[in-house]
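Re-running the complex after MR caught last week's input typo. The corrected sequence lines follow. Everything else is unchanged.
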Amino acid sequence: MMNINIVTVIGATGTMGANISGIFASFGDAKVYCVGRDIEKVKKTIPRIVKSVKADAITKNLIPADFSMLEECVSQSDLIFESSKEDITIKTELACRVGKAMKPTAISGTGSSGLSITTIAECYPEELRSRFFGIHMFNPPYTLQLCEMTPTKYSDTELKVELENYLRDVLHRTVVEVKDSPAFLGNRIGFQFINEALQYAEKYRDNGGIDYIDALLGSFTGRTMAPLVTADFVGLDVHKAIVDNIYENTDDYAHDTFVMPSFATNLVEEGKLGRKSGVGLYQRIKYENGLSRQTVYDINTGLYRDVIPYVFPFADKMKRRIAEGDYIKAFERLVNNQSQEAQICLSFLLKYIVYSLFATEEVGYDITAADDVMATGFNWCPPLAMYQALSTVADIRELIKTRLPEICQKVDVDRLLVDVKPSKYDYRIYFKSGRKIG
Amino acid sequence: MSKVYVLGGAQTDFERNWTKEGKGMIAVLKEAVEDGLEGAGLTFDDVKELNKDNRVACFVGNFIAEKYVDQGHLGAFLTEVNPVFYGVPSARYEAACASSSVAIDAAATKIRADEYDVAIVVGWELMKTVESRVGGDYLGRAAYYEKEGKGIDLPFPKLFGKLADETLKKYPELDEKRFMDALAKISVINYSNAKRNPLAQTRKWFMSYDQASTRNTETNPLVGGRLGVSDCSQVTDGAAVVVLCSEKYIEERKIEEKPIIKGYGHRTAPMLFEKKMADNAESEYILPWTRQACLDAYKRAGLTVDDIDVFETHDCFTSSEYAAISAFGLTEPGKEYEAVENGMIAFDGSKPINPSGGLIGCGHPVGASGARMLLDLYKQVTGAAGEYQVKNARNGMMLNIGGSATTNYVFIVGKE
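Corrected-run output:
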C-alpha cells in the first residue's frame, strides 16, 4: 500500500478543504499541512476539522500554515491536495507553484468539481504530469464516501492503481474512475435532474412553482431532500456554475435541460443564493420567540409566501405504503395514476434512469459507476436500483417508450438498456415516507 | 430428538434509522422477514404449506417495544406482515438484550422435541424513535429499575463502568493502564472489523487507538465511570431473522451443508449488580455465571475452546467483552489483556472475536442482537460472510447477555 505520511491541503479553510483535511488526518493518519490565506483563520478552522470526523485524536495531525509556507509544506509532502476556489486561473497558478516544489515521488491532486483536469495537469513540469489526478469528493466526505478520480492522458497507470487502492482501502472512499469531462459524472446526473426540476418550477408556476415541484419529487421518490431544497442547500451560485459549465462544454440530448431558468439567475444576481445567504428559493423566517415559518419564492409574484402543504392523492398513497414497507404497492400507485402530478413525477424518475445510463457511457467506464456516484455522492436511490424498484410493477422499456417519446427519438433507449443489471444498492433504503411514525 | 439445523436468514442494515425514513415496525418486520426467508431458502408459500400440518412456528425476540413504539403482543404482530402467518403459532420472548437468544432457545427446543420442523426466529428493536437519554432510561428496565435505573442518567454505561472498576479490584495485579489500553484496543478491533461488514452501523465511522485510549475529551466523553463513548456500543434500529429446522425437514428437502446448533448454555446471575459482584467472591471469574454458561455449552457440544474458530460476543461495552475473553476460556481469568495484546482476538488472530464488528461496530438493536450473532455464526461456518469471512471456520460460539450480565446465553454452531 502506498505510504502517505505527510499531506498538504491547499485551501483548508474552505468547507471541502477543511473536511478533506479531516479525512486525511483520520483514516489516513497523515500529518496534514492545512494551508490557507490567513493562518489565524486556519487555526480557527482546526476545531471544525476535528469535529467533522468526531475525533480529538487527530488534532496533533493538523498543522496550520499559510501561503508563504506553501513551498516548504509541499516539498515535504507525499500527497498534495488542492482545494482552492473553483477558478481555473487560481488553480493553474497553484499547480505551477506545487509543480516547482513537490518531491519527484509525490502525488498531486485537485478537488475541482468540474474544471479541466488536463489543463491543470499541463501546468506541471513534464516529468511530474504523470503524478497528477483529479480527486473529487462530495460534501460532507465523512458521510458521503464518493470520490471521483480522474486520470489524464499523462497519468501513470500503475500510480493510478496505487492511488485508487489508497483512496479505497485507507481513506474508505467509494472510488469511481471518470473521464475528464465537465462536472464529471455525479454532478452531471444530479444537476441535470435538479435543473430540470427548476425549469419545471417555472413551467408550472401557476400551479405553485417551486414548492409544487418539490412536493412531487420529495423523499418518497428515493432521496433525502427534495431537489430544489437541495439546490438551495448547495447554493444557487454553485448550482449555476455547474450547469453553465456543462451547458457550455457538452452537447448531448439533454442539453437544453442545463439552462438555468431566468427567475433563478435573477435570484443569483440579487445575492439570494439559498441557505448560506438566508434566502434563495426558500426563506425560513425566524421570529424572536423562537418560532419560524418556511416560505418559498413565488415565481409569478416575485414574493416569498408560505409553503403550500400540497396533498396529491398519488403521493399521499405512496407515502402511506412506504411507511408500512409496501414498496411494490407504492410503485403501483405511481405507475397507474394518471394525474398530471403522478405523470410528472414518474417522468422525472424515468428520465433520471435514461440520463444516468447515457452519461455513464460518456463520462464513466462501467454501468455501475452511475449507481456508485448517485448512492454515495447524493444519497439518492441510484439509477440501477431505481430501475429495479420500478421493474417490480412495470416493464421499464415500455414505460419509457410511452412516457418519454421525445427522448426516445433522440437516444437509442433499447441499446442503453441492454447492459442494465441488478444494483448492489437496496432501493428500499432510499424511499422514505416523509411521515411521522407513532 | 432431532438435531437443530440453521438454514440461514438475514439482518437489516444496522446503519438505517427507520424513524428518519418515516417507517415503523411493520416496515422493518416486512423487510426482515422477507429477506430472512429468502436467505434461508424459504418462500411465503412454503410457510403456508408447512402450516397446514402445523409444522412451522415463529419466535419473536424483542426487549421493550412497549416503550419504544407503544406496542405489545408482538408474536401475533407477524400476521400484519403477511397473511401466510395467519394460524402460525407465534409468541414473543424477552430477556432484555438477550431476548432473541431466548427466542432461539425456545425455537431450538421445539425442533429438538420434534414438535415443529421449521422455526422462524425474528429479533428486532426500533430504538431511534426517542432521543438517547429517554432511550437510556427505557433500557434501565433491563436492570433492577427501581434500584439501579430510575432517575439515573444513562444507567447502563454506569453499570458497565462499575464492571471495569470491579475488574481492577478483583485482579489487584492487573495494571490499570494495561487494562484501559486493552479496552481501547477492543474498541478499535470492533470498529475496524465493522469496516468489512456492509451491514454494520459504524462502517463509515472513524476510530483509532489514539481516539479510543484518550478518554474524557469533547469527542470521547466519559459516559460511565472510566468508560468513554468509544467503549460503548451504540443503540440503533434493526432486525435479524434466522430460520432453524429439523433433521426431517433437511432430509425431505434434500438440503445439504447446513450447520447445526451443537450446544447451548443458559444461566441467570443475580439481578442486582452489587449482588452479582458479591456472588463472585468464591470464583476466579468476575462473571461466574457467564463462565458457567460457556462451560455448559462446551459440555453439551462435546467441544472445547480449542475447537472454536470464531466468536461473536456481547460487547455492549468494552468491559463486557473483556470479561468474555476468559469466560470463553481464551485466557486465564485476570489475564484477558493477553489475548488483546498478542493479537489472538484480532480479525487475523487465532481466535477472532466479533469479525462482524460486534455490538460496538455492527450496532446493537437490543432485541435483534442474539439473532444477529447466530446469523453471523451461520455465515462464518458456511463461508458466507463475504469480506469478514474468517478462514476455515468450522465451529463458532456466541455469547449474548441481558442486563448487567444477568441473563447469559451461549450457542455453538458448526458443521456436523
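None of the earlier attempt is carried over here. Residues 331 and 393 of chain B are 20 Å apart (CA to CA). Chain B touches chain A at residues 13, 16, 18-24, 26-31, 69-70, 129, 195, 204-208, 210-211, 214, 217-220 (CB under 8 Å).
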